[in-house]
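Re: that backbone. Tokens:
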């Protein structure tokens, strides 16, 4: 990998990490969702500092070519992010359901109160 490309990757990954940290600081991103993004950006920083690590991982798991290993790694990261977001959506959906039921009960009690 060329030195220019390593510098660009390192710069981009570092900017991405700083962006994630600033979003946490501004409270626009919760910690539980940010963890996956922080791990991802740190992984990209490590891979841009040590590009031969990708070759070593490829040899270790028996994949021909570091590009295929990188695609596999990115696929796992994307699946992890999707799974994390699916959990968040499920939890939010459950909370909305409970709140809707509570609002319905409160409306019913208000109507009963108005009739009396």
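Recovered sequence:
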């Amino acid at each position: 990998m060329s030195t220019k490309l390593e510098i660009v990757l390192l710069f981009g990954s570092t900017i991405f990490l700083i962006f994630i940290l600033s979003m946490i600081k501004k409270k626009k991103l919760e910690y539980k969702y940010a963890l996956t993004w922080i791990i991802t950006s740190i992984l990209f920083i490590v891979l841009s500092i040590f590009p031969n690590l990708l070759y070593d991982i490829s040899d270790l798991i028996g994949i021909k070519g570091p590009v295929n290993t990188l695609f596999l790694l990115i696929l796992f990261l994307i699946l992890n992010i999707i799974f994390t977001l699916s959990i968040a959506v499920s939890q939010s959906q459950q909370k909305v359901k409970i709140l809707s039921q509570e609002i319905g009960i409160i409306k019913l009690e208000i109507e009963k109160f108005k009739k009396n």
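The two ends are 80 Å apart (CA to CA). The mean pLDDT is 90.
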